Amino acid sequence: MILFPRGIAIVYATAEDKAKELFDKLKHKGYTVSLFNYKEVEKAWKCYDAIIFVMALGGVVRTVCKYARSKDVDPSVICVDDGFRFVIPVLSSHWGANDLTLEVSKIINATPVITTASEIKGITSIEELARILNCKIVNVKAIVRVASALLKGEKVCVKGVEKIPEGVKGNYVIGDECEYKVVITDSPPNGDDGNTVYLKPIKFVIGVGSKKETNKEVIKEAIFNALNLISASMDRVVIIASVREKVKEVADDLKVPFRLISWEEINAFNDECLTPPSDKLKELGIKGVAEVSALIAGKGRLILRKIRYKGEVTVAIASYEGG
Length: 323
Prior knowledge:
About 35% of the residues lie in helices and about 25% in strands. The protein has helices at about 15-30, 40-45, 55-65, 95-110, 115-120, 125-130, 145-150, 215-230, 245-255, 265-270, 280-285, 290-300, and strands spanning about 10, 35, 50-55, 75-80, 85-90, 110, 135, 155-160, 170-175, 180-185, 195-200, 205-210, 235-240, 260, 300-310, 315-320. The strands form three sheets. Strands 2-1-3-4-5-6 form a six-stranded mixed β-sheet, with helices on both faces. Strands 7-11-10-8-9 form a five-stranded mixed β-sheet, covered by helices on one side. The protein is globular and about 60 Å long. About 40% of the residues are buried.
């Protein structure tokens, strides 16, 4: 599963050379990564899943205090010192920062500094479980009690899936008889007892851009490749959208509704978080196709930035919030 499908922003203050070095290393590993000067933090905060600050920890903390709102909406934030000695998760540890810390520390041969109890005890956090299941946590405050139960070794029932995902660690069990629970449902209640974390499965919209001559089998392969990157299945896809009418044939084959996007809609759409267009699209005066199509059809947020497949197709995934 790709860890940060909306990408990683590297932010530097004075150590531009070290930031560029880290940028090159992460890009070589296959991550979608962008480089920002410290003055551009606000855009990075809005548009990326994770931020790596290459600077002193104190400066990172002061910056985070300006922007942090809630653990379920803030990006994962880690700090790498200018000397590449330490990597420290600062914000959203269980939402990806710990994983990114471990990855970066391996890449630059630095020491990771992780202090969260779940990782120390080798337990998969509720947040990580939600990410594995491609779900949104509905009642974030309930995480504290349920996570505490896991840390004490108590059973936590998981309801709404047939089995515990492979690799998940901790005393999770399938069932409904525990005091503490994780419930996956499309219709979570408005209130709860505080002992149950509700996860709502994310529905997806796939946006597709392709060359005119691309055959539908390649387009189909590109769609499955994108879903595989976020460990999602086709039954979560509610719309496939494109400016290419040919893509409707693919949608029909997959038994998914198709939404034809007009060029007028593409040109009228604005979102500062879109991936910058390729040189070819710039020549044509087009801001993008795959990401824009997915966002227009889904009315949600970008889940997976556009990826190219065999040089012929681009695919992006957005959440579906259309009701």
